[in-house]
Amino acid sequence: MNHLPTEILLFIGEYTVKHSHWRERCRTLHALVLCCQRFYNIFQSLLYHYLILGEFLTKEVRLVMHLWKHPELASQARKLKLCWPSDDDQCLRLGDYKDDEQSRVEFIDQALQEIFTSEEKETESKWREWLHNFREEAWVGVLLVRLAHLESIEFGHERSELITPPFPFMQEVHAHCVVHYSAIDQKIITPFFYFPNVRSITGSDIWATAEGEHVLDPCDIIQPSYSVRKITVYGIYHCHGMLDWLAVCRELEHLYIQAASHPDDEEILYPFDAMVFYQALLPFRQTLRTLDVTYNPLYNDRLIDNNGWNLEKDNIPFQSLREFSVLQDLIIRHAHLMLISCSSSRTLRLSLRKLSIRDIVEDFSIDLVSELQSLVTNRDALPHLVTLELGEKGIRDENAISKKSRYSLEFGT
Questions:
Q1: 3-class DSSP state for residue 268?
Q2: DSSP string, 9-62
Q3: Does the pLDDT value for residue 54 go beyond 90?
Q4: Dihedral angle computed from the Cα positions of residues 334, 335, 336 and 337, in that order, rounded to the nearest 10 degrees
């Protein structure tokens, strides 16, 4: 092995990374590293490029301690995935810890001494207790201090503690709840909007923050970085419009939001406020290229069941979108478009390339089709329009054009 060309060794490592599961890949690379010193030197970066922390057990504690003591290895990490059970009964206990306890205590003292200043004794004391009690969030927080070159983080857990270091290389954040019928608190994701280079926030099954609730501790005076360009969140429970997130963006380009009704809610408790949401979009008139705002099927069903078509907030139409100078893709509910569609040639942006209208209101479907036929005939109204879509599979017939009338038109350029 020690005599093989470096190119062949690299090919073996890259093939292992691309064609095997994460755990199998780690075992294979670890076995190869033990074969010869050259494998060890070449594969160090591959071993720690993508870290996945599942159940937080002795081996995870061992990994945190190892990377902390070897920052040159921690600096190789580019992706981190966090996913562990929310049940405290499955957490690591002191009696289950299989390594030397004294070395762990010494590590905790050393790490906290490096992280906190002498004026932060109270906070340091809390973290010391969390680390001694194997609080997963605290151990992950200590790990993150060392992952200075992290570019992407993905997590699936509804609890978190003070994970706010300014990673200069992180550009993407993914948050997806792994517990059925549960959700991730919006407040856990919000701090990532303050990271210096995060460009994209993606998530699903999110509990929206209540109006008037403080997202950040008032004593934390942190200026937003205004770096986020894309927000994609499907399944937002109790959503008023994600105003906290929009407020800390400056040059938002793509926005995908799906307001949702939770299965445990018997009715819509917190209606989506379309007018307030529209006002929050106005700062992005010169940057927004994609606007996708829909409701999930359960939300739509509950609107119908509770005669929700008369609710002022849920279905109030947006105002003119003509001021959004670079808007290209618009996916919108019919109720939110009704005021616009009455004079679409004057209220929709000429730059529009795709118009997708969802959740058609049956009583006004004839007027909608007539207006859209006029758009098709008069290409000068929207000269760049390439795709026109009506209706969506899965919407109840009481709230949509009949299936025979649903169609998608592709225009030539």
A1: coil
A2: HHHHHHHHHHTS-HHHHHHHHHHHHHH-HHHHHHHHHHHHSEEEE-S--HHHHH
A3: no
A4: 50
What DSSP assignment string belongs to 178-242? -STT--EEHHHHGGGGGSTT--EEEEEEEEPPPTT--SS-TT----------EEEEEEEET-S--
CA distances from 193 to 177, 226, 342, 356 (A): 19, 7, 37, 29
Q: How many CA atoms lie within 13 A of 67 on its CB side?
A: 26
Domain ranges for the chain: 1-48, 50-153, 171-316, 328-413
At residue 155, the 3 state secondary structure works out as strand
Give the Cα separation of 352 and 325 in Å (integer). Answer: 9
Tens of pLDDT, residues 120-158:
888 889 889 988 888 877 888 888 888 888 888 776 654
Amino acid at 192: F
Write down the pLDDT at residue 402.
36
Q: pLDDT tens, 287-317?
A: 999 999 998 888 888 776 665 444 555 667 7
Q: Which residue has the tokens 């790990």?
A: 143
Asked if residues 279 and 313 have their Cβ atoms less than 8 Å apart, the reply is no
DSSP string, 317-338: PP---TT-TT--EEEEEHHHHH
Q: Which amino acid is located at 182 in the chain?
A: S
Beta bridge partners of 51: 80
What 3-state DSSP class applies to 104? helix
Look at the chain and count its residues. Answer: 413
Specify the pTM: 0.60
Task: Please tell me the predicted confidence (pLDDT) of residue 393.
Answer: 40
Eight-class DSSP state of 251: S
Say if residue 348's pLDDT is above 80.
no
Task: Using pLDDT thresholds of 50, 70 and 90, give the confidence band for residue 58.
Answer: confident
Closest residue by Cα to residue 353 from 387, 389, 377:
387
CA 320 from chain centre, in angstroms, equals 29
Spatial distance between the Cα atoms of 48 and 64, rounded to a whole number of angstroms:
12
Average pLDDT of the chain?
A: 75
Torsional sign, CA 76, 173, 357, 399: positive
